[in-house]
Design brief:
This protein has about 350 residues and is of the alpha/beta class. It is built from 10 helices and 14 strands. It has helices spanning about 10-20, 65-90, 110-120, 130-135, 140-145, 160-175, 185-195, 205-210, 285-295, 340-355; strands at about 1-5, 25-30, 95-105, 150-160, 175-180, 195-200, 215-225, 240, 245, 250-260, 265-270, 305-315, 320-325, 330-335. The strands form 2 sheets. Strands 3, 4, 7, 8, 9, 10, 11 and 12 form an 8-stranded mixed β-sheet that branches. The chain has a 6-stranded mixed β-sheet with strand order 5-2-1-6-14-13, sandwiched between helices. Helix 1 (about 10-20) runs parallel beside helix 10 and helix 2 (about 65-90) crosses helix 10. The two termini are about 10 Å apart. The structure holds flavin-adenine dinucleotide. Flavin-adenine dinucleotide binds near residues 203 and 313.
Length: about 350
């Protein structure tokens, strides 16, 4: 069987690896117009989160609550499958996958967050929702911060530059093929390569590739800092996040996530339908990031970031699209529209694609 996968981000690579494991005799080719650092995937935070993620509300605003419930349930089946796969990578060299504690601080007492707490408690390692202890451990004055509660658990945090490399090598070492190509349509890919199956993992590119106007960009970005003190010890050992808060600059949230052995990602924001990714360090969005995260890390006020990144999350209002499509006279399976959770959902969605091909 000849399989053509469009897209070399986390979705395309993970799907390729899953398919090769299930169909070892298949010939799998990934074709894409961006690789490695040029993909959105390397801009991911990349924190594993129970769904909906911190910045996930754009996906579901205005939808029927039953539909939202269905989307969340399905996404969490995928998220949990990925959690287990990432656990298998714990401690392996060069994967970029680090297991650490994340602390979530609640800005409001909502049914959504209470539900998350209930579901997470039975699913993840090291779950804790003793708010008082969490505030104390992290030296946060609850009154001054205005937070109404907190919970915490152990989760994968991924250095995406290393991880994308690791996925790429794993795929190539298993006999996979990767080429540069750029498609205007699925039809064009079908005519050029005549594969038995096409898997669409084109992320936001699917908007044009399959004319899906539901797929919209939600801009995000972060600053990268050194995370070692003078003794070579990590300055920040755990991740700290808040739920999203809207203000005139869009949705903002605290997002402090250790990256790899010695770096720290500090974010974040979510701006729907804003595609300008060319932001200087002086931009108000970055100033806001420093201001809001300084509540936790006062040293940020004077620290110099190593770099900064801005990217477009591939949101899809009706939720992630993983399904067969019979429109093209060749079997096509879509796997795109993961919004701010493409890493979190990657293994679960890849497994779903694999089972759809059976
Ligand atoms: C600031 C920020 C923070 C984030 N934080 C997190 C996080 O903490 N946790 C998390 O799980 N997720 C996070 N995400 C989301 C995550 O990055 C995305 O959901 C994920 O990268 C989507 O992966 P993908 O492989 O589907 O798409 P991409 O990485 O965008 O890859 C798409 C691929 O398709 C190819 N392609 C597209 N169109 C065409 C075409 N026409 N022809 C040929 N090739 C094409 C591209 O070249 C590319 O190779 C974050 C995103 C951003 C921007």
């Amino acid at each position: 069987m000849e399989i053509l996968i469009i897209g070399a981000g986390v979705s395309g690579l993970t799907t390729a690896i899953s398919l090769k494991e299930k169909y070892p005799d298949s010939q799998i080719c990934i074709a894409a117009d961006k690789f490695g650092e040029d993909t959105t995937s390397t801009i991911a935070g990349a924190l594993w989160e129970w769904q909906p993620a911190v910045c996930g509300f754009y996906e579901t605003t205005g939808l029927d609550p039953f539909l939202i419930e269905g989307i969340n349930k399905r996404d969490n089946t995928w998220a949990f499958a990925s959690y287990n796969e990432f656990y298998k990578l714990k401690g392996l060299l060069n994967t970029g996958v680090f297991w650490r504690r994340v602390n979530f601080y609640l800005t409001e007492d909502t049914a959504l967050e209470n539900n998350k707490i209930k579901e997470l408690a039975t699913k993840v390692f090291g779950f804790d929702n003793d708010s008082e202890q969490i505030f104390k451990r992290n030296k946060i004055c609850q009154k001054a911060s205005g937070f109404v509660g907190a919970y915490s658990y152990l989760t994968p945090m991924i250095d995406m530059s290393l991880y994308i490399n690791w996925l790429t090598n794993k795929f190539l070492n298993n006999g996979g093929n990767i080429i540069w190509d750029s498609f205007e349509s699925i039809q064009q890919a079908k005519e050029k390569y005549a594969p038995d199956v096409i898997i669409n993992c084109a992320g936001l590119g699917s908007r044009d590739l399959v004319d899906d106007t539901q797929c919209i960009p939600v801009k995000g970005g972060w600053l990268l800092y050194d995370n070692l003190n003078q003794e070579g010890q990590p300055l920040v050992k755990e991740a700290h996040c808040t739920t999203i808060q809207e203000n005139k600059e869009g949705g903002n949230f605290i997002f402090t996530v250790p990256r790899g052995a010695d770096k720290l990602v500090v974010g974040g924001f979510a701006l729907a339908n804003d595609t300008d990714t060319d932001l200087s360090l002086e931009h108000a969005l970055f100033k806001r990031i420093i201001e809001q995260n300084s509540q936790f890390l006062p040293w940020l006020q004077d620290a110099k970031p190593i770099s900064h990144r801005v990217g477009l999350r591939p949101f899809r209002k009706q939720g992630v699209r993983v399904e067969k499509d019979d429109m093209f006279h060749v079997p096509v399976i879509h796997n795109y529209g993961h919004g701010g959770s493409g890493v979190t959902l990657s293994w679960g969605c890849a497994m779903e694609v694999t089972s759809l091909l059976a």
